[in-house]
Amino acid sequence: MLENHTQLRKAEETLKSLQDALEAISAPILCGMPEISKTIACTKASISYLESKIDAYKEANSCDPEYILEIELFNGATVKHFLYCLLSTLWQQGEGFNSKRPFGTSGWQYMVILKLMDQGVCENEQHAEEYVSGLIDYIFGYLKNEN
User: pTM for this structure?
Assistant: First the structure.
């Protein structure tokens, strides 16, 4: 069912909509409208099916660098976007680059590390740090092949 990261995001949005709809239609049952129970059962079945497809896709792609780069960190920013911003900031600031606070706050590495651990991609902090280094190698891997 899910073949790429765009479809995954759409499936997650649909899942959220179904969950919201279920919550909205469940309230009338509490107020004495049992005829909605068939709709609720159908919505619950759709949610379960969609959750299983999303989980299967994530499990199958958890080691795929392209999947990891598309994981959302915050406000639509992906791991790929985060790494791009970091490199762009380094380039623009040059010698004035503050590696401790490149985005104005410390702990910036943990945004990625904790998300990778939360998504089940990495087991611990050290594994996540190594994985991010591997992602950077993956992104710029063509440079290694040319030298």
Answer: 0.57
